[in-house]
Write a structure and sequence with these properties.
4 strands, Thioredoxin-like_sf
Length: 102
């Protein structure tokens, strides 16, 4: 089993979703599979829920989206590294690796 660096343990994935969304269901499964191998903080935001108007304006028609932030100490931003729509485990791991080396 791979051992994650302490820097990687501080990474965060924010998953932007809406319901119903079959692409979101598939993307969430991809992220959860990566979570079995890598340790990172995880947050899920339904862009259609009250209080998420900022993200609805950005991603209402683009879900699923993940943001990969190198640290859990900073709130996610639109400038985070991201993947949209269809992505696989290799792409998610690559973004996590890039965040860890940032």
């Amino acid at each position: 089993m791979l051992r994650a660096s302490s820097r990687l343990l501080q990474s965060r994935i924010t998953f932007f979703t809406r319901s119903p969304c079959s692409l979101c269901d598939t993307a969430k499964a991809v992220v959860q599979n990566v979570k079995k191998e890598r340790d990172f903080a995880y947050e899920e935001i339904n862009v259609m829920e009250a209080g998420n108007e900022k993200w609805k304006g950005v991603y209402e028609f683009d879900t699923p989206v993940i943001h990969v932030d190198p640290s859990t100490s900073n709130p996610t931003s639109t400038s985070a590294s991201k993947l949209m729509h269809r992505f696989d485990e290799t792409q998610v791991k690559k973004l996590l690796d890039e965040a860890a080396s940032a």
